[in-house]
């Protein structure tokens, strides 16, 4: 009934929201969730609250850099805007927790203080690894229990097994879909047009 009361101009927004409420595989492409403007890729990034600086710098993204993201998943993860674009894509699939966990583990490995190491380890476990965690990642029981055991004496490597599983999952599952996504193809297209 509420949908009937919405003005016609909100139909596009309803379509976008409807598409977002399903897995990306159920949408043939991302045009339904991308705004109908020439700079689709930048507008798409704006939807996910990138800073003005990141948006300005992303305009300088070269075709070569964006093309290199297809070389390997690790190349994508090593590039600031590659991570930003991949995160935006994962949000459409409702699986950004995988990347967030992987990034949290990378940041965790830089911890030098023993006191901070323990608290950070427990925070990451409670947020991503524990059963029913708010942003629970998809890992098997054995990996989850091995990680739980590692927390008894936290070290910089206590999440390595879980992080490896999540990396592998993203590399084999989400990454190929990202490379075929309308969003990635729009980024490539936009960077190529700037060269012309």
Automatic annotation (TrEMBL):
Identify the residues that the record assigns to the RGS domain, covering every copy: 72-188
Q: Which GO terms describe its molecular function?
A: GTPase activity
| Domain of life according to the entry | Eukaryota
One GO CC term of this entry?
perikaryon
Q: Which UniProt keywords apply?
A: Cell membrane, Cell projection, Membrane, Nucleus, Signal transduction inhibitor
**How would you describe this protein's topology in the membrane?**
Peripheral membrane protein
Q: Which SMART domains match?
A: RGS
One biological process term from GO is:
negative regulation of signal transduction
One protein family per Pfam: RGS
Instruction: Tell me if Membrane is a UniProt keyword of this record.
Output: yes
InterPro entries in the cross-refs: RGS, RGS_RGS8, RGS_sf, RGS_subdom1/3, RGS_subdomain_2
Q: Where in the cell is it found?
A: Cell membrane; Cell projection, Dendrite; Nucleus; Perikaryon
**What PANTHER family does the record tag this protein with?**
REGULATOR OF G PROTEIN SIGNALING, REGULATOR OF G-PROTEIN SIGNALING 8
| Protein name (database record) | Regulator of G-protein signaling 8
In its UniProt entry, the species of origin is given as Gorilla gorilla gorilla (Western lowland gorilla)
- Highest classification ranks of the organism: Eukaryota, Metazoa, Chordata, Craniata, Vertebrata
Q: Which gene encodes it?
A: RGS8
């Amino acid at each position: 009934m509420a949908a009937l009361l919405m003005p016609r101009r909100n139909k596009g927004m309803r379509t976008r929201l409807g598409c977002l409420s399903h897995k990306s595989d159920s949408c043939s492409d991302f045009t339904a969730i991308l705004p109908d403007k020439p700079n689709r890729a930048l507008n798409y990034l704006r939807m996910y609250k990138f800073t003005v600086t990141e948006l300005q710098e992303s305009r300088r993204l070269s075709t070569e850099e964006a093309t290199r993201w297809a070389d390997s998943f690790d190349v994508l993860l090593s590039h600031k805007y590659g991570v930003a674009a991949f995160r935006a894509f994962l949000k459409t699939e409702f699986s950004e927790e995988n990347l967030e966990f992987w990034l949290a583990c990378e940041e965790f490995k830089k911890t030098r203080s023993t006191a901070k190491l323990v608290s950070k380890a427990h925070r990451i476990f409670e947020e991503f690894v524990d059963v029913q965690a708010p942003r629970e990642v998809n890992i098997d029981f054995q990996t989850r229990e091995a990680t739980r055991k590692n927390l008894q004496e936290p070290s910089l490597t206590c999440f390595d097994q879980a992080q490896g599983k999540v990396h592998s999952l993203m590399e084999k599952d989400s990454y190929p879909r990202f490379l075929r996504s309308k969003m990635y193809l729009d980024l490539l297209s936009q960077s190529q047009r700037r060269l012309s």
